[in-house]
Task: structure prediction
Amino acid sequence: MRRLVLPFTGALLALSALPVHAQSAQRPEVAAAAKAEQAKLVAWRRDFHQNPELSNREQRTAAKVAEHLRALGLKPQTGIAHHGVVAIIEGGKPGPKVALRADMDALPVTEQTGLPFASKVTTTFNGQTTGVMHACGHDGHTSILLGIADALVAMRKDLPGQVMLVFQPAEEGVPPGENGGAPMMLEEGVFKTFRPDAIFGLHVFSTLQAGQLGVRQGPMLAASDRFTIKVHGRQTHGSRPWGGIDPIVAAADMVGTAQTIVSRRTDLAKLPAVVTFGTVHGGIRFNIIPDDVELSGTIRTFDLGMREKIFADLKNVAEHVGAAHGAKVEALVPDAKGNPVTMNDPELTARMRPSLEAVAGKDNVVEPPLQMGAEDYAYFAREIPSMYFFVGATAKGIDPLTAPSNHSPQFDMDESALDLGLRAMLQVTLDYLHGASAP
Result:
C-alpha cells in the first residue's frame, strides 16, 4: 500500500542541526508593532472586505498592495500568476531567507452579515448572478501581511536575513479554462532567484475561538480533487419514460451508490476521506426527460493510496451504474489538477511552536484535528519547509462549533484575529531569522 511520504528529508536534517532559539516570551518589538498597526489593520481589512474580487480578478487588491509596498521603499514585482505581488525585504545583517504568504481572493457568495462594511459587489459566475464576499477571511490575511511589511521595514537595519512577502491570487480556485494560484506562481519562477529556507502561512478559522492558535505537525489540510460525471441518456416525453433513457434516474442512482465508496470501501480507521457531490445539472422542463445530466463534486484525502483507490472506485461506480440504466457515461475523475495535502514540516513546526505560545499563551495554542478543507499553499509547502497555522476567528461568547463557518454568507471574522495573526506571524518570523542565524 502506498502511504503518504513526508517530503523535505534533506531540509529536515538541516533544520534539526540548528539550535532552537524560539522566544519564551513575546518580543517587545512584536508588541510595539501590533500596537502601531492595529488601526491600520482594521481599516485595510474593511476596505478589502467592501471591495472583494474573485480568483484571477484581484486587480484592485493587488494594486493597493503594490502601492503600499512602494510607499515603504520596496520594489514589488507585480503580475505574477496574473495578479500576484511579491516583494523582498533586505535585512541589514546576514541571515536566512524566509517567505510569508497571504492570499487575496474572495468567493462567489452573497454576503448576509449585515455589517456596515458588508460587500455589495455582484458579478456573473458560471452563468449566474451572484454576490462577491470575503467569506473565507483573505481580506484579513492580506491586511496582516501588509502590517508585517510595515514592521519589518521599520526594523530592517537590525534584521538578519531576508523576507519575501508573497501576496497570492486565486487560492480559491481558478475559473474553468484558466491557470493561476500557487502552482502558476511556482511555474513562473517565484522561488527561482530567491529560494527561502522556510515559508510560513496562516488562515483565520471559524472553528477556533478568537485568541486561540491552531497548529499540528505533518498533514494539516487534505488533498482536494474535483470530478465531473456526464451521463448521456435519450430524451423523451415525461409521460413515456420507456421511450428514452432517463439520465436523471441514472445520475441519482450514481449519487446514492457512490456514498458506499467512503462508508464501505475506505478504511476510515486509518485516515478520513470525503466524496461530495456539489452540483447536479440536467433538464429544462418538468415534463421532459432530458438527454444529459452532469454531476460534479470533490474528493478529499490524506493518503496517496486511498486517493487513487477512490478515483478508481468512483469511476467504476459511475460507469457500471450508468450501464445498468442503459446510459453512456464520461467519468472525469479527477477532471483537473488538484491540491496536494498541506504538510507542516515536523521539525520546523516543533521548533516554532514556542513562538506561537509566546504571543497567545501555551494553553491557547491547540492541535486541531485533521481538516478536510484544502489549500493550494500546499504547493509551496512541497517546495519549501513550511509551517501553516490557524488563527481563531470566532468572537468570545459564540460557540465555534455552531458559528457560521468559512465560506458561509454569515461568516464574520472577529477583528481581534488581525492583531493576534500579526503578532503570531511576526514573532515566528523574527524568532526564525534570529535563531537560524545563531552559531
Summary: The chain has ten helices and 18 strands. The first strand starts at residue 77 and ends at 80. Residues 1-22 have pLDDT under 50 and may be disordered.
